[in-house]
Structures are given as C-alpha cells and as structure tokens.
C-alpha cells in the first residue's frame, strides 16, 4: 500500500503548485481573442479555377483552366485586398474559340462580378487572360470561380456593400474659380480665372459625382511660365487635393488647364477649383514655433516633436492646423520635471484653425517633447500641424 502524503510534504509542494497554476492562467489569458467571422459569399457549387495578385499599374495574367475535368457554363471574378480596374477579360476554349464578356469596370475591395453566362460550347475552357491594374497602394488579389455544367443554379453573388457617404467639404473662406464636367475617357478643359480681382496664394481641386484620374494640372499666372504642381492621382468621389501652395508670393492666375479622365464603371465626374486669399491664421508675434509635422494617414497616426534643450521655459502652448482638416485624438506634453501633461484638445479642427491657448501646469516649465495621436478627416488633404509656445 502506497504511503499517504504527509502534511509537511504538502506544504513543501504548495509553491510548486501555485507556480504551475499561475503559468496556466497566464497562458490562458495570453490566448488571442478569435477574430469575428468575416462576411463571405455563398460559393456552394462553384470551383475556384485560380487566383492571381496584381503587381503593377497595368498587369496581364493568365489562368490555365484545362486541368479541370468537365465544362463550365458560368464564371465569376472576386476582388480582394485592394481596388482594381479591370481592363480586359478573355476566355479561350479548347477549340481555340474566344469569348470577351463586357466586364471593363472598377472594382472595390470585396466586390465581385455578376455570374457570367458562357456561350454554348462543346469544349472545355483552356485558359483565361486578364488585363487589369491596381488603383490604390495595396496589391489586389483576383480569384476566378467556375460553375460546372449540369449543376443546380448557383446562388447569385450578394450585392456589394454601399460605401458610407463622404463628409461634405467646408468651403468657408475659399472662392469658387470654376467647375467642369469630365465628358470622356480622356478629356482636356480650361478654367479662365483672370476675371477675379485680387491674387490667390492657394488652390484646391474637389471631385464630385464620380471617381477621376487627374493626369496633369497646369496653372498659368499673369507672368512667367505655366506651373505644374505634382498632383497626378486617382480621386474617389468626394475627395479633394491638398491645399496647393503657389511658388513665391501671392499670384494672379490667368487660367488653369486640366488633363483627366473618368474611371470606367462610374459616372461623369464634376471638378470644382477653389482659390484662397490667405489671411494669417493668428498673430504669432511673441510666440516660438517648437516644430511641425505632416499627418500622413486617414487612420490613427502617431508623431512626436522633439524640443531642443536650449529652447528655454514656457508657460503656454497652442497648436495650429494647416492644409487640411484634422481630428486630434490625444496630445501629451513631456515636461522637464513631474508627470506628463495631457491638455484637453480632443476635437475636430478645420484647416487654418488652431487650439485654444493651453496653460501649462505650475510655473514656467521646460518642455522635452510633444506627442500626438491624430488623423486626417476623410475627403480632405494631409493636414500640417505646428506647435507654438511662449
């Protein structure tokens, strides 16, 4: 018969048991939470024939389908990870006949084509050639699915989610210099501005009603050669360019020339040009600028301004927002002594506005650095943030 564990032995084992239980509990707590289920389309009855990643501005790929037995009577194409412009879609059958369904379109991330009915053929699909290009920073992933002849009717792909309405841009303080509607695939327009008295220091271009590719923007002043700001870009409906600063001093604009095009699958974009006769945001005499940063993302962004040790001591701060609209999520002031200071500045700031004057706690304080959490507001440009102290 095995001896019983004595009370003294159990007391010696308690620390080991406690360590084991603590480690087990920590491991359980460290387990990541499962991701919520993502919406999927009903692929029952469909066979994935292949997928490709779009690697460039204009790309061409082929999916070999002949390895699958049997014939297909329907196809659909799914786009993931990024936005995509489909330029051409060609199906080659085993008897060398070809079929070009009309699919030239711009696809958002997560969208798919309708179910494409294939023409009657006694041959299997040999290959599918796709010509396309990415429309944003990511690389789109394209899947092609087939529905086999003789199967039950495939469920239709769900309707793509509707994007949320873009926030309206506030044109307060800006002058509308003119607007044009983009009529074709490639278009050229001119806006004559000389009829406006006075001179402007900034421009912005607002895109409405459809998506647009801006190929070139040329600004002709009263004197000198035309100026071409670097604004080649794809614009979603409701977006605008950054506030474009003119070279040199305020200038009188004679006219503005555009080269642009509507993106396939959309409507006719309307382009409006606004000019700003810039007035000073505030009187900065007596203030010292500690630094500035440009906000790079519409998602939450983090930045830090390092303040040199020899800058002295300050009692007050203010933050100036330029070039775009901004949501200030948090601000932390690192002081020479004591706890960091979190002023209450959580707010939305319009372009060319600033925070209230922020009083630092206590007497004059030495500032080591300033941390920000913020983001650009959708539909606007990249905001520039300046910090001033006195």
Broad shape: elongated
Radius of gyration: 30 Å
Secondary structural class: mainly beta
Strand content: 35-45%
Count of DSSP strands? 27
**Main sheet attributes: strand count, strand direction, barrel closure:** 5 strands, antiparallel
Helix content range: under 10%
Q: Give the H and E element order.
A: HEEEEEEEEEEEEEEEEEEEEEEEEEEE
**Distance between the amino and carboxyl termini:** 85 Å
pLDDT below 50 for ≥5 consecutive residues: which ranges? 18-40, 163-167
Describe this structure in words.
By secondary structure, this protein is mainly beta. It contains one helix and 27 strands. The chain has one helix at residues 7-30; strands at 46-53, 59-64, 72-80, 84-93, 98-99, 105-107, 116-117, 125-134, 141-148, 174-181, 187-192, 202-208, 212-221, 233-235, 244-245, 253-262, 270-276, 288-294, 301-306, 313-314, 316-322, 326-335, 347-349, 353-354, 358-359, 365-376, 384-389. Strands 2, 4, 5, 6 and 8 form a five-stranded antiparallel sheet that branches. Strands 18, 21, 24, 25 and 27 form a five-stranded antiparallel sheet that branches. Strands 19, 20, 22, 23 and 26 form a five-stranded antiparallel sheet that branches. The longest helix is centred in the N-terminal third of the chain and has 24 residues, at 7-30. It starts with 6 loop residues before the first helix and ends with a strand. Residues 18-40 and 163-167 have low confidence and may be disordered.
